[in-house]
Structure to design on (362 residues):
């Protein structure tokens, strides 16, 4: 909005030239989202507490302390993230950019699925919300539409190919089937973040770390000079996603203020599904789908731990982990919640650095 209304006035007021620069608007988006979160957070939490008298339903088969320490904490805090992220992006991004709108479609579409899921859990007073098959179908439809949209925005045959990091110009052609690959990337990222969201602050910080990495990747991929120097795929218009990701970081920081242990609110599926979907959509737009698996390696490990646990239990009747996802395994082993959370943050930072290294290693 600012880009459309203020940049044309740069000839009259020279300072408005700043809106030409993605870096300036990215900084503004981050601060705006943070301010909105700080302002709206207390009001939203009070409202959620008033309508959720018993808070988020807690798993009875989970760590025992959760039934005591987390009882009564409201959920759906992801609404705060979406409000701050949405308003900030609309204010600071170039709204003629198709990648921004496709990413917003995934973010808010998946957020809507999560909202319905959270609502059903609250009204039914159990941990079963939207049936898994229905949830996956809805995610697939939204993801596929966004994937087709983004692939049509990409130059040449790039929209039908999967880029492989480290190797120069190595692209795996998928042809007309690439939107299905992109769809699964978005769905996988969304559900992986959802599985990771089990402890106060555990999911939001790695998400912000990944958003920071992809903000840089988007900026570089959208600049033909940097893309040529680093020998990565040049994607005209992808740089605008830096504004969106900066807004996500600001919204995430604001949410963390209220989600820090002991959490005053949980993000719920409203937040986790939308944030994961956003990362997946951006990775598709930047042709960095495999890099997402590295940068978001923590989410991958958490998901794999669930898959391994379910597969092995069905096959042998025994468990590999004391409890899945993996963070609950360490809780069962006696690790304190802050210890698990901070150590997982450290792992996320290390993986982010590894992911960034792929930009230069060729």
């Amino acid at each position: 909005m600012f880009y459309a209304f203020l940049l044309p006035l740069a000839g009259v007021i020279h300072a408005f030239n700043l809106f030409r620069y993605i870096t300036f608007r990215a900084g503004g988006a981050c601060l705006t989202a943070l301010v909105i979160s700080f302002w709206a957070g207390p009001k939203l939490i009070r409202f959620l507490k008033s309508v959720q008298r018993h808070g988020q339903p807690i798993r009875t088969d989970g760590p025992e302390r959760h039934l005591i320490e987390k009882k009564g904490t409201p959920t759906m805090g992801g609404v705060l993230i979406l409000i701050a992220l949405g308003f900030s992006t609309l204010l600071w991004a170039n709204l003629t950019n198709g990648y921004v709108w496709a990413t917003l479609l995934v973010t808010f579409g998946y957020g809507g699925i999560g909202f319905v899921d959270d609502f059903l859990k609250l009204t039914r007073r159990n941990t079963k919300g939207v049936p898994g098959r229905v949830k996956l179908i809805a995610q697939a439809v939204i993801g596929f539409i966004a994937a087709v949209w983004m692939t049509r925005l990409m130059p040449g045959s790039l929209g039908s190919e999967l880029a492989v990091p480290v190797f120069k110009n190595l692209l795996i052609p998928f042809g007309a089937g690439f939107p299905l690959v992109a769809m699964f990337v978005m769905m996988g990222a969304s559900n992986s973040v959802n599985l990771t969201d089990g402890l106060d602050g555990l999911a939001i910080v790695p998400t912000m770390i990944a958003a920071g990495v992809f903000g840089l990747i988007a900026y570089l991929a959208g600049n033909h000079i940097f893309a040529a120097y680093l020998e990565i795929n040049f994607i005209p218009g992808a740089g605008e996603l830096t504004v969106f990701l900066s807004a996500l970081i600001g919204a995430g920081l604001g949410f963390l203020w209220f989600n820090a242990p002991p959490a005053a609110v949980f993000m719920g599926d409203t937040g986790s599904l939308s944030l994961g979907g956003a990362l997946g959509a951006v990775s598709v737009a930047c042709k960095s789908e495999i890099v997402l698996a590295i940068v978001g390696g923590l989410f991958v490990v958490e998901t794999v731990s669930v898959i391994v646990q379910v597969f092995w239990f069905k096959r042998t009747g025994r468990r590999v982990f004391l409890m899945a996802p993996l963070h609950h395994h360490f809780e069962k082993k006696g690790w304190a919640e802050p210890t698990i959370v901070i150590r997982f943050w450290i792992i996320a930072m290390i993986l982010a650095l590894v992911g960034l290294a792929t930009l230069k290693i060729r």
